[in-house]
Amino acid sequence: MDSIQDHLNKLLDRSEITNQYLTILKEKVFPDPDVQAFLKENQDHLDKDAIMKSAINLYEFVNQKEKRQANEPSLIEGHDPKLVLFNNRIHVEYEPSTDEIKRQKLLQAKQRVKTVYISKEVNEATFEDLYVTPGKKEAVSKTLDFIDDYKATPQDYHQGLYIHGSFGVGKTYLMGAMAKSMSQSGYQVTLVHFPTLCSEIKAGFKDNSVNDRIQPFKETEILVLDDIGAESLSAWLRDEVLGVLLQHRMQHNLSTFFTSNLSMDQLEQEHFRTASGGDEPVKAARLMERVSYLAEEVQVTGENQRKK
Ligand code: ADP
Ligand code: MG
């Protein structure tokens, strides 16, 4: 049986290690096309001695590159090795791969779309998956116009849309696709289910947090108030919450969209007017002025596309 000392000696047999190392360098590291290209490109700065001194780094490069290509765990996840010349020596640096950059961009984009009480399906809506039926054509094309115009001149005011139509025709879905597209270009979009927001605000009424609660919706670059008209509205919600919110967005020229089962006229006559339980046509008309300043009315027709 080998003594510990013998074992160590074997491990430390420099010539054995050196031979294995040289074989790997010769057979695997130097023939690597990226290594070849790098050495050729930097031949004026590297002599044989410098290359041999940096060979361990070339080895690391080839080894890590193989791991990344085979999808095996690598030194720095999501990063590709890269050869660099520094002080006449070759070093390995790691930079995020194209996939990693894409993944991070998507993640950042997701963080810029803020969806509040919105289904997962709508959160994932994209124009690639969106099909256009004749009844949707106008709304889709106006939404696409908005996107193009906004991206072309983000400093200008761009009026949003008031998209109405019956349940399940795809209003919210279209807004989800718009939100994703805008956010991928770096704009901050908030899509909120308005009836749920109203219930939440009502629940928080006593702790004086109403202003805090509506602040993010006042300030977001692009806002979608989803399903307006389906909330149970009170005079207070109408005047102090919705009125204040829309007034702020109007004054600051911030793009605002609405979706609703009601037309603008129905919203005014059947919803805003009677919010207090009585009849307040003037208040309703004032609020409607803000809505129509912010958004152009467009109707969507078609079948209910909900699966359940
Ligand atoms: P609405 O807001 O008009 O009530 P939704 O936008 O919630 O309707 O649409 C209902 C469901 O129909 C969505 O969850 C989605 O699955 C599907 N859907 C709607 N519009 C489209 C579309 N243009 N392309 C693909 N699926 C759609
Ligand atoms: Mg909807």
Question: What's the alpha carbon Rg, rounded to whole Å?
Answer: 31 Å
What's the mean pLDDT score?
Answer: 90
Helical amount among residues, as a percent range?
40-55%
Count of DSSP helices? 14
Quick summary of this structure?
The chain is α/β, with parallel strands linked by helices and 308 residues long. It has helices at 4-11, 14-29, 33-41, 48-53, 55-69, 98-112, 120-123, 137-152, 171-184, 194-203, 210-219, 235-251, 264-272, 281-294; strands at residues 79-86, 89-96, 113-116, 160-164, 189-193, 222-226, 255-260, 295-299.
Topology:
Elements: H1 4-11, H2 14-29, H3 33-41, H4 48-53, H5 55-69, E1 79-86, E2 89-96, H6 98-112, E3 113-116, H7 120-123, H8 137-152, E4 160-164, H9 171-184, E5 189-193, H10 194-203, H11 210-219, E6 222-226, H12 235-251, E7 255-260, H13 264-272, H14 281-294, E8 295-299
Parallel strand pairs: 3-5, 4-7, 4-8, 5-6, 6-7
Antiparallel strand pairs: 1-2
The structure holds adenosine-5'-diphosphate and magnesium ion.
Detailed description of the structure:
With 308 residues, the chain is an alpha/beta fold. The protein is 53% helix and 15% strand. The protein contains 14 helices and 8 strands. The strands form 2 sheets. It has a 6-stranded parallel sheet with strand order 3-5-6-7-4-8. Strands 1-2 form a two-stranded antiparallel ribbon. The longest helix has 17 residues, at 235-251. The radius of gyration is 31 Å and the shape is elongated. Bound molecules: adenosine-5'-diphosphate and magnesium ion (MG).
